[in-house]
């Protein structure tokens, strides 16, 4: 029987993919928070530190906008989180080699080491969380990328 209070196209509230995505995301974020707690990193701190560590390997200067694009984070929030990572001694701002007005970002030795320890815990958390999908996990990743890359 249809709920008469909410005029939804779904018979049951938990049939909507948006609500399901919200619920699953909240549970996944809670699992990630727990996995990252021993490293004293929030999830967004981890994402930015790991992304910077990944980008810095190429040897090209990493600008804040490059990091925000790689992590798909808001530039203002990225700046705020980078300040915290700098205060923790995990990230440094250095003079850009070819643009005197700009700064580039590099993980410190301690930052790169922490990112590499934490990524092990994050990936183990993901394996456990997404484990019920079994062999469909790869296709789930493909579907998520399709949604992420979609132009609205």
TrEMBL record:
It comes from the Bacteria. The keyword Transcription regulation applies. The keyword Transferase does not apply. InterPro entries: HTH_MarR-typ, MarR/SlyA-like, WH-like_DNA-bd_sf, WH_DNA-bd_sf. It holds the Pfam family MarR. Residues 1-152 form the HTH marR-type domain. Keywords: DNA-binding, Transcription, Transcription regulation. This is MarR family winged helix-turn-helix transcriptional regulator. It comes from Nocardia suismassiliense.
């Amino acid at each position: 029987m249809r709920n008469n209070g909410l005029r939804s196209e779904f018979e049951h509230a938990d049939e909507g993919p948006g609500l399901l995505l919200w619920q699953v995301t909240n549970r996944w974020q809670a699992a990630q928070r727990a996995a990252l707690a021993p490293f004293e990193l929030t999830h967004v701190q981890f994402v930015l530190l790991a992304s910077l560590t990944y980008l810095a390997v190429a040897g090209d200067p990493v600008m804040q906008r490059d990091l925000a694009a790689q992590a798909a984070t808001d530039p203002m929030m990225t700046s705020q989180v980078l300040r915290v990572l700098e205060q923790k001694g995990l990230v440094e701002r250095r003079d850009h080699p070819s643009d005197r007005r700009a700064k580039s970002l590099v993980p410190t030795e301690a930052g790169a080491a922490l990112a590499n320890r934490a990524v092990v815990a994050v990936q183990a958390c993901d394996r456990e969380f997404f484990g019920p999908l079994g062999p469909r996990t790869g296709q789930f990743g493909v579907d998520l990328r399709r949604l992420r890359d979609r132009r609205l």
